[in-house]
Amino acid sequence: MRDTEILVTDRIDESMSRVIRNGLDAFNDEVAGYADRLPLAVVARDPATGDVLGGALGRSSLGLLFLDLFYLPPPLRSGGLGSRILKRFEEEGQRRGCRSAVLYTISFQAPKFYERHGWRAFGEIPCDPAGTSRIFMTKDLSASMARTDHR
């Protein structure tokens, strides 16, 4: 492997993603003894056109729910739509057997929103612009599962 070339690029094509993703997935499956990763999308759609207006994207894997992206356009940010989407996202994670959930948000985005929904910060790293930070958050889904089971 001495002659292996190293490429640095801002253009990630599907073949790059496939090699890295499939290699890591195979390694994880071998060590864990099973594969349970699934993508997850909870989206808001325009009822007239079916167009996606916003929502949450993530995945579940090995008992953990990852909230990777969450966006709603400004006109849809009041009235509880974001809360409903987050709740459905968490419920689907619980249905899949996830015990915990993780995300990161930026200090100028929505940390207070997540805190209101039971998420807690477990790390913070300064980033740009100056005075901003990435806030890493988690939520225990097993406690919510226990409450749901007793209904």
From TrEMBL:
<protein>
    <submittedName>
        <fullName>GNAT family N-acetyltransferase</fullName>
    </submittedName>
</protein>
<dbReference type="Pfam" id="PF00583">
    <property type="entry name" value="Acetyltransf_1"/>
</dbReference>
<dbReference type="InterPro" id="IPR000182">
    <property type="entry name" value="GNAT_dom"/>
</dbReference>
<feature type="domain" description="N-acetyltransferase">
    <location>
        <begin position="6"/>
        <end position="142"/>
    </location>
</feature>
<dbReference type="InterPro" id="IPR016181">
    <property type="entry name" value="Acyl_CoA_acyltransferase"/>
</dbReference>
